Each structure stands twice: as C-alpha cells, then as structure tokens.
Amino acid sequence: MPKWRPPKGRRAVYWWTSEIGNLRGACSEARRAYYRSQRRRRDGPDVTEGLRSIYNDRKRALRGAICEAKERAHQEVLRGLDDDPWGRPYRSARKRLKGAGMPLVESLEPAFLDRVVADLFPLPPDIVPPCMAATVVEAAGEMAPEVSDIEMEAILTRLKARKKAPGPDGVHARVLAVVLPNMEVSVRELYTACLRSGRFPVAWKTGRLCLVRKEGRSADSSAAYRPIVLLDEAGKALEWVVASRLCRHLSAEGPDLSEAQYGFRAGRSTLDALWDLRSHTKATWHEGQRVRDMRRAPLAHSATAALVLSFLLPLAYAGSMGPGVPENITVTFLNPTTVRVSWSTTAELVEKYDVTYKPSDASYRVVLEVAGNSDAVILSGLEADTQYQVTVAALWGGHKYRSRPIVFRTLEPPRTSPQQDGGLEIPRSSVTPPEPSPTFPTIRGVEIGLVVLVLIIWIGAITLFFNRWGKIRMLLPYQPDYKQEQLKVPGSSALAAATAAGTCGAHSATSACSVFHFKCHKYA
Question: Ranges for the Fibronectin type-III domain (predicted)?
Fold first, then answer.
C-alpha cells in the first residue's frame, strides 16, 4: 500500500505577487462577513448593506490589481522574446500546439491497407453498379429556380453548427460560415448553375478515407478499423439544397416516400426504425411466424434496394428467404392424426425436399426426404390434439433454403355414443381401446436439486442460530448464579451472626435480618 503524501498545493501563476495575495485575503474576509450577516439576519439592513459595499470595493481592487499584473507580465514576455526565445513564450505556445501524429492510413503498410479497404468495401466482380441517367438540360421556361434566401440562411445555420472534420480541401465548416456572407452572390450563382445544368462537381464527390482504430480488437484484423469518409463542406451544402427540394416535390406532388423509409429524412431517426421493427416483430411473433423476410424489410424501399439485395441473395444461408425457398405452405387435415402438407417454389431444378416436423414441446424431430419434383407430402401417425411445427427445406445448387416454420394443431378424435349411432348395437367382437394410462407430473432433477439446496440452507441457518446464541429462553429460562457476584458489605457477617443468635432486637431469631440498623450495630 503506498504511503500517504500530503496533497500538493496549487502553483502560483507567473504574474502573481504578494500584493495580490493580500488583496485576495482581504476580499475573502469581506465576502465571508457579508454572507454570514446575510444568512443570519441578526444585524440590521444597514449593517448588511455596509458589508456588501466593503466586499464590492475589495473585489474591484483585486480585479484591478490582477489586470495590471497580467499586463506587466505580458510586456515583460514581449521584451524577453529576443533575449530568451526558448523560454516561457515558447513553452506556452508548445502546449497549445498538440501534435496529431501521422494519420493511421499513412502509418499502415500498403499491402495491409489494401486488404483492409477491400474487406471494408467489398465489390464482387460480377456486380455492375447502376448507370447514371444522362444529363437533361431543361428548356428556358422550365429551368430550376434560383437558390433562395431561405435556402442560403439554412446553409449558413448548418455550417455554423457543424463540428466535423473538413474534407479533402481542408476548409472547415465554421471557416466557410465566416466567409459565406461575403461570397453569398458567387456561391448562389454556383449552386444555381449546378442545379440548372444537372451536374454535381466531381471534386465534391471525392472524399478522404480515414480509419479509426477500435479498442479491444486485434490490429491485424480488418474489423479493428472503422472507415470514415470526409467530404467537402461546399458539396454537402449543395447536397442539402437538392435533398430539400426533392423532399418538398415528393410530399407535394408525389409519389411520396414510403413510410418504411427512415434514412435521410427529416424528423426520423434510427430510434423510429427500431420501434417500428420491434412492433412488427412482436406482431409476427404472436402470429406464429418467426422468420426474417428481407423482401418486406424497410431496406427494400430505399433507392439502393436492388444493389443491396444483389449482394445479399448470393450469400443466402439456411433459414434465409430468397428464390427457391418453399412458400405458400398449406396444411390439409385428412383425419385427426393425418395431414397433407403442400408447398410451392420458384426454383426449377430442386434436388430434394427435407420436411421436418415435431411437436412444439418435444426435443426430437422427424425428417422426411421428398423427391425434388414433388410438391406435397402426407404426415401420418401424429398424436391427436397436439400442436406441431413443420418446416420445408429445398436443396438445390449446393445450398439448403428453409422456409418459415408453420404451426398447426391436430384434431381431437371423434367421440361416438349409442344415441349418435341411431341405436345400432356394437358387435361384441369389436376391440375396445384400452383406457389411457394416468399421467403423472414429471419432476425434473433440477427442481429436486433446488429443493434440497434450500433445505440444506435452512438447516445450516437454524444450527448456526443455536450454536451462536444458545438455547431459547422462552423454552428453558436461564437464571445466572449471582452468589459469587454479591456485594460484600463490611459488618454484614457480624450482623448475620447476631441475627442467627437472636441478639437483634429489631428481628426475631427465625427471620433473616435484611435491613441494616446503623444505630444498633457498628461496622467490624
């Protein structure tokens, strides 16, 4: 354990003097006297007001002395720049200039950097990016309107509030906000020309890639780096203008954006998408469907849905939804213990189907292999009045595509009686089904272990109580022996002997003398 050391006091600044220390002590004393008088309210208002004026005067004198000392120290620093260039001015400037060091992208090896970028931004060779539409120049009467004053004010407000790092041009958003009022006409004409020509400058599409190291990850893994792309602030401002006009056009003239679109929309955030996903998942769970349907996901309504799905569908695994997955699964009851399961699929060359079914509360399952050209199977020998879960999986192309689980319940067996049969007699040769064996509750080993553990704890607590505090006094009263602890009073032995001999006039010989008569007896 380290030794205790007294705390170090605060260092005095270079402009501190003894005069300032005396003024500070007098100011603190006046402040305490004024606050004490104001808190107790014993003195009159005149006394409190006098203490307040004294405190203000001393505080004003302290501030003036500090300002004069700072000014003198500043002049001394300026005069000493030539004499001592590596002194206090150099050290003060060096504290403010914190070296950021070499960027992480430049410190990594080129081969490792290429591998990290390829893993973070995968681009399969068979994926063709969507082609951009040709630029259409509108007629003179249908030209895009000029950037309005309201849009310029919105741009200026956004630039003032941004605290992000600059893009490749190195111009910070706050610097652009300071310069924008003086260059408003030029910037407005530039943005208007871009809108009317339908072109977005290529320089504003180019970003600077920055990698941020994640804590707790191996430095040799691509997952240990978070990619961030920085764009120019001027290009972001033009993007805001285009996005705001698109949103106004879609909301006014339509078709409006889907309700499932949350990205790049005002008034919506990731929390709204999570709440929508939670409510949708809960509703699907109550319906008995427990599967992720990518076609109904909010991502499918975005502008890049086709590109994203083209990446994900070739990488589909068992349990995913995609082409060839059995759909429209229908369960038809043939009798209480036999059902017919049918399905349909879009795949043409299916090698085989695996139909898996089991009771919902059972730990086992039954798998039936069905030919690839079939679209139905009959499940027999099921238990009556039991809930089952069935899944159909298609095997083709070396992958298995499983459908969502379907839950159904078998029917109860029909109950016949002589009245329902129209009075027909049942032949004696008919075999009566055996009576069902009584079912007993199943006790698990874990439950037995918990009960035994609780009993052991109770027994240990009771044993500890008796060993710690002894017997219960309510049952066996405990009376200590006070004979060895009685107070010995001088003369009590002689008094007892006199009482026993009958010489005490105040008491008889047969009764014990418990009262001391100081007039008749003297201490031995």
Answer: 325-413
The answer on 109 and 251 residing in a single domain is yes
pLDDT score at 77:
82
When divided into structural domains, the chain yields a total of: 5
Pairing outcome for strands 327-335 and 338-344: antiparallel
Does 434 fall in a domain?
Answer: no
The one-letter code for the residue type at 364 is Y
144 by Cβ neighbours in 10 Å (0-12 / 13-18 / 19+) ranks as middle
Indicate the burial class of 411 (C-beta count within 10 angstroms; 0-12, 13-18, 19 or more).
middle
DSSP class per residue in 173-202: HHHHHHHGGGGHHHHHHHHHHHHHHT---H
List strand residue ranges (DSSP E) for 265-384, in order: 327-335, 338-344, 352-359, 366-371, 376-379
In a domain, 230, yes or no: yes
422 lies in some domain: no
DSSP state of 487: -
d(C-alpha 132, C-alpha 130), whole Å: 7
- pTM metric for this prediction: 0.39
For 370-414, the pLDDT digits (tens) are 888 888 999 988 888 888 989 998 887 777 888 888 888 888 877
CA 168 to chain centre: 34
Contacts of 330 (CB under 8 A, 6+ apart): 341, 342, 343
Number of alpha helices (DSSP H) and beta strands (DSSP E) in the chain: 14, 10
Q: Residue 357: which domain range?
A: 327-409
